[in-house]
Amino acid sequence: MKVAVLDITGKETGRKVELSDEVFAIEPNEHAIYLDVKQYLAHQRQGTHKAKERGEISGSTRKLKKQKGTGTARAGSIKSPVFRGGGRVFGPRPKDYSQKLNKNLKRLARKSALSLKSKENALVVVEDFNFEAPKTKQFVSFLTSLGLENKKSLIVLGDTNNNVYLSSRNLERSEVVTGSELNTYKIVHANSVVLTESALEGIESNLKK
């Protein structure tokens, strides 16, 4: 499948690139996408939540009142969960939310997500570009030329470019990543994916393995 290469102004350069059918034209496996996105979101959780149980509360061990004759329920500890300030019953404990997926499934999920974007015509290839200095206005102009100013967009670069990254940092709907940082969640979350030529080469060589 051939796709026209655009320049930074959104105009065609007159060149076309061949997108690998192994990466951008497979039958999408939605369950693989689901599992990979689920793993990504699970890994965002710190799992440091903790509530103190009655054995961890600081308080007197004195018996509050005599066992019988008060007309109320018996009580032996101020740390009991029935009292304010007492321990929590079955409270949250630190937990590791990480999930394991094998490399082949994760690779299949990324290829499936890219194939879906390609099928929806939500995939754009641009030539490599750079800014002389971080300028949000210049980055907005770039998005406008591609018709992405009001859409959630993912810009994928071949290598780290601080000027481009810093130019996009104030924009809520746009994210700049390198090819090595690309994952299934970011692809699915974006309305449109913009690949630079150098990023395209890296992605294809990585996902064809």
UniProtKB/TrEMBL annotation:
Pfam families: Ribosomal_L4
Stretch list, region Disordered: 46-96
A single MF term (Gene Ontology): structural constituent of ribosome
GO process annotations (BP): translation
Listed SUPFAM superfamilies: Ribosomal protein L4 (SSF52166)
Keyword Methyltransferase recorded: no
UniProt key word Ribonucleoprotein: yes
Keyword field: Ribonucleoprotein, Ribosomal protein, RNA-binding, rRNA-binding
PANTHER family: 50S RIBOSOMAL PROTEIN L4, LARGE RIBOSOMAL SUBUNIT PROTEIN UL4M
Protein family according to the UniProt entry: Belongs to the universal ribosomal protein uL4 family.
Known partners and oligomeric status: Part of the 50S ribosomal subunit.
Reported function: One of the primary rRNA binding proteins, this protein initially binds near the 5'-end of the 23S rRNA. It is important during the early stages of 50S assembly. It makes multiple contacts with different domains of the 23S rRNA in the assembled 50S subunit and ribosome.
Name used for this protein in its record: Large ribosomal subunit protein uL4
Organism from which the protein derives: Flagellimonas sediminis
Gene, per the UniProt record: rplD
